[in-house]
Design goal:
Layout lengths: L3 E6 L3 E6 L1 H10 L7 H10 L10 H4 L7 H15 L4 H11 L4 H8 L7 H9 L4 H10 L4 H22 L21 H14 L1 H4 L2 E4 L3 E4 L3 E7 L7 E6 L1 H4 L6 E8 L6 E6 L1 H10 L1 E3 L2 E9 L4 E4 L7 H4 L1 E3 L6
Parallel strand pairs: 5-7
Antiparallel strand pairs: 1-2, 3-4, 4-5, 6-10, 7-8, 8-12, 9-10, 10-11
């Protein structure tokens, strides 16, 4: 029986060797989209769910001497911006990491800053977070250098991540395209498409707000929106879903796959409910924590199918997207 390695994070990093029987047993004991081999072993060995949390790298590793209030506010900001969690999700993560109550963390960024939760959400939605930087600089004037370094590093990291996203789509075996043929990501168009989708779905889901240019937040549900242009060379569309999303998928989460039509004459979309999205994630390949969703036109019968879930009826489920602003 073949052996392979899994990495288990405890107080230090260690590598252990397990066979297929052990790994299958761990999978049976795991909660989908929640557990890792490490968390399952914690539960089996220690009989509880309290797992050591990996610290927030920018805060714990660099700014250990700053006030706890400032540290925890920066932690929440980092989880929202860097890992794309919602504010409530980020608050939960930071509370667990610091072994404290949710309300204690909320008190730091609401009452102590004189802001409501809605006002904090608005500050977190700003592209460069300049409003948050200004507020924290005034509130913690003795730690301006720390605050400046944090926001500069955070914005720099997000810019690098956005640049990398422009190129992750191209398969290794694909012949490089000429520069004139390479499509550049149009973030303004993507934002317009996602807002148009939200408007089109109002009758079914209600009013919405846009969160971090990725997710539509309706009254009782959330919809992760991903866009793909059509790629002639392989007659396909493809999307990437980061681990921060698919590993924390909830019952009220939907996945919207927006696509450029083959004739370039418009756009369409497919909506998957929570269970369908989880099934799709389970079938897709994973690279660097990102799930790769591939959809192509198959030459044999000219039918569009997901590469790893061919039973899904794309033709029936695909809808036209309206209300796109003209250039």
């Amino acid at each position: 029986m073949d052996n392979f390695f899994i990495r288990v994070l405890m107080m230090k990093q260690h590598t252990i060797e397990v066979d297929e029987i052990i790994m299958n047993y761990l999978k049976k004991k795991a909660d989908p989209f929640v557990d890792t081999p490490n968390t399952v072993l914690h539960k089996l060995l220690f009989g509880n769910n309290k797992i050591h949390k990996e610290p927030s790298p920018l805060i714990y590793n660099s700014f250990k001497s700053i006030p706890k209030a400032l540290s925890q506010i920066l932690e929440v900001i980092e989880e929202v911006v860097k890992n794309e969690f919602s504010r409530p999700e980020a608050t939960t993560i930071v509370a667990n990491r610091n072994d404290t109550a949710l309300q204690t963390i909320m008190d730091k960024y609401c009452r102590q800053l004189g802001k409501t939760a809605i006002e904090v959400d608005m500050l977190l939605s700003e592209p460069k977070l300049e409003g948050f930087r200004t507020i924290l600089t005034k509130k913690f004037s003795n730690h301006i250098d720390v605050i400046t370094t944090f926001f500069d590093d955070l914005n720099k990291g997000e810019e690098n991540m956005n640049q990398q996203k422009n190129y992750y789509h191209r398969p290794v075996e694909e012949i490089p395209k000429k520069e004139s043929d390479r499509k550049k990501r149009d973030t303004a168009l993507e934002s317009a498409l996602k807002n148009a989708l939200g408007e089109q779905l109002k009758d079914k889901f209600g009013s919405f707000t846009m969160e971090r240019q990725s997710r539509l937040i309706f009254n009782d549900s959330r919809m992760l929106c991903k866009f793909s242009s059509f790629h002639d060379d392989q007659s396909k569309w493809f999307w990437g879903v980061r681990k921060a999303f698919w590993q924390n998928w909830e019952l009220n989460d939907y996945l919207a796959l927006i696509m450029e039509n083959k004739d370039r004459g418009g756009y369409s979309f497919i909506i998957l409910d929570s269970d369908e999205a989880k099934k799709l994630f389970n079938t897709c390949s994973e690279s660097d924590g990102e799930k790769k969703i591939n959809m192509r036109i198959y030459a044999g019968d000219n039918v569009i199918r997901f590469q790893n879930w061919k039973e899904f009826d794309i033709e029936t489920r695909s809808k036209s997207l309206y209300g796109i602003p003209k250039d």
